[in-house]
Amino acid sequence: MFASRGANWAIGLWIGVTLAVVAGSVLLDARLSTSVLLFVICASPLGIIPVIAAGASPPTVAELLNKVGTDENVR
Questions:
Q1: Domain membership of residue 65 as a residue range
Q2: What is the mean pLDDT of each run of 10 residues along the chain (75 residues)?
Q3: Which residues, other chains included, contact 42 with Cβ-Cβ below 8 Å and sequence gap of 6+?
Q4: Which end of the chain has the smaller Cβ count within 10 Å, N or C?
Q5: Which residues have C-beta within 8 Å of that of residue 21, sequence separation ≥ 6?
Q6: 42 close to 18: Cβ distance less than 8 angstroms
Q7: How many domains does the chain have?
Q8: Is residue 75 part of a domain?
Q9: Model pTM?
């Protein structure tokens, strides 16, 4: 599902949900510290994912062959 839409779409959706959560907490008269905590919890994966992805190992030959063998164009 996400592969056809791209990473930018997923990040935009994530930011939209984060803003909705924070706005909802403000509308419910939550304390400022609670709203900031919710924002930090929602936004932290966006900072962690690039760090993890940068150290990811390249795919193995078996993974590459499996990907080629499972394409829809192969009969």
A1: 2-69
A2: 70 89 92 91 85 81 76 56
A3: 14, 17, 18, 21, 22
A4: C
A5: 38, 39, 42
A6: yes
A7: 1
A8: no
A9: 0.57
